[in-house]
Amino acid sequence: MKFLVDFFPVLAFFIAYFIPDNRSQGIYWATSAAIVASIIQVTIIWLMYKKVEKMHLITLAIILILGSTTLLLQDKRFIMWKPTVVNWAFAVVFLSSQYIGKKNIIQRMMEENIQVPDTVWKPLNFSWVIFFLLMGIINLYVAFNFSEEIWVKFKMFGMLGLTFIFAIGQSLALAKYIKLPEEEKE
Fold first, then answer.
1. Which residues of 13-41 are buried (b: 16+ CB within 10 A; e: fewer)?
2. Pick from 157, 4, 137: which is nearest to 81 by CA?
3. 97: pLDDT confidence band, cut at 50, 70 and 90?
4. How far apart are CA 20 and CA 31, in angstroms?
């Protein structure tokens, strides 16, 4: 359920873009759908949990600013910058967390589920910083060197796929720290 709520705006963007009757204005219909879906997303999260994660609020603010600018100016470049701005904002947050507070953001998010030596948290967090920076660069490359339709497909499948692959790589790197419960002695 959380996965669907988290990716609802991206899915709404993708579906609205490919509605056959909207092909000439697909990017603008998709942008409108993403704005509405983001508002619905934050509302649903608030109603379910009575709080909203900063990630969702940051993403909502960015989609409202860049999406509205796209619609007002009828210039798709603004919405094409949105994934980069979001990724780079996360890179800044993750990097800042290494210097603010006692624990970086990755440690705060994961330490209840996995126990690793303290020396692992900083490089793990920094790897996400690099990942977010690269994702922003890759988005810009695809957005401004390929067709609009290719960019939309990349936004839906490429970015999600790269994130999934990176997360699996992180899991494999952390697997050596997972301790299985000892078998009960008979």
1. bbebbbeeebeeebbbbbbbbbbebbeeb
2. 137
3. very high
4. 16
